[in-house]
Amino acid sequence: MNLALAFDVLLAAALLWSAWRTLSTAQIDRAVVMFIVFGLLLTLAWARLAAPDIALAEAAIGAGLTGALLLDGLAALKRTDARRPARRTAGKVMVRIAVISVLGLLAGTLVTALISLPPAPIRLPAAVAGDLANSGVSHPVTAVLLNFRGYDTLLEVAVLLLALVGMLAVGLPPAHPGISRNSMLPTLARYALPLMVLAAVYLLWAGAHRPGGAFQAAAVLAAGGVLLNLSRLQAHWLPASRAPRLAIAGGFLLFLAIAAALLAHGGLLRYPPEQAGLLIVLIESGLTVSLAVNLAAFFLLRSTPENGQIPPATAPRESP
Amino acid sequence: MPLLDLLSGSLLLCGAFFFFAGTIGLLRFPDVYTRLHALAKADNLGLGCILAGLALQADSMALALKLLAIWPLALIASAAVGYTIARRADRLGIVPWEKPKP
Question: N or C: which terminus of chain B carries fewer CB neighbours within 10 A?
Answer without folding.
Answer: C
